[in-house]
Sequence to fold (361 residues):
Amino acid sequence: MEPFFFEIWGNPSSVHRIGRRARASLDDLRDRCSTFLGAKPSEIVFTAGGTEANNLAVMGTARLLRENGRHLITSTIEHHAVLHCFDYLERKEGFSVTRLPVDSTGRVDPDDLRQAITPETTFASIMATNNETGTVQAVAELGRVCRENGVIFHTDAVQWFGKQKFDSIDQFNADLVSACSHKFHGPRGAGLLYVRSPLQPDPILFGGGHENERRAGTENLAAIAGFTASLQRFVRKPVFDSHHLSPFRRRLLELVNVMEKTNYRGSSTCFCDNTISFTVIGCDGISLMAGLDLVGICASSGSACSAGSLEPSHVMKAMGVPAAEANALVRFSMGRETTTEDIDHVVAQLPTVIDRLTTSR
Fold:
């Protein structure tokens, strides 16, 4: 990233030699990303992260296709960067939205998607991997259902890259795919939206013809360079290595299953090895986060993007967890730097923290 702070600092849209040098670098980075993904360079839209990529996919595609139909489909467990877009389109722009249920493990049934499609359905968005539970969806099958019925399909794959096997962008059977740099050790503030040609979602940012008229704003070359390097280094062979992480996850799951006041939340067969989530009976998420932090354990209560919220996790509620318990969700995330000593510390401290918080009430 360093050359783009000090040497190649021009605006890629400028016609002078400094700008042309930046443009050449931007084109090279786009080529590298597209080659890695198995896409065309014109199908890559660089964004400021996963939230913007999801917003562009949902808002831009729904608006583009509104003359063909105003029925949209999503699931009840999407990230708020997706759900809130559907809420807005339904509330403000006259769209109708079907929100598919999930089972107790957090998975969408492809048959539910098939049955929800109507002649008015133009667009569906269902995530590849859930950010709160690590549950992995049958995303290729969901995409196939949409393709067979002429419905444009988007998947939020932010939690997939660097954690699950990746061969090419075609494996999702999706017309639009969101990715985010910092989920696989790239810089924050960088992401992309894959847009399958010839689809052209309406832009949601205005003020210039950047990114082939799809995303106004001067491109952040340093962030894009970091994103590209991380994509090439850490995705084909997932940086969140299952051989390293699965023994840790098994130990934590065993601990959760033997404690009386905890319930594992997620799938036992379709999951990311870096994530384990559970709820606690007789407590709340904020107290749990504080109690764990006091003994040196950093955890989240649901999505990190809404971890300070006092509302119960919408993902837990969708999975049928009672409201009181849905508000006491703990998510442990592990990575390449997680050690056996880290897990030993959690195993030693977690029961004490939970007992102290639940017996004091």
Remarks:
- Strands lie at 44-47, 71-75, 96-100, 121-125, 152-156, 176-180, 191-195, 262-264, 275-280, 329-333.
- The first helix runs from residue 3 to 6.
- The chain has 13 helices and ten strands.
- Residues 242-359 form a domain with the Aspartate Aminotransferase, domain 1 fold (CATH 3.90.1150.10).
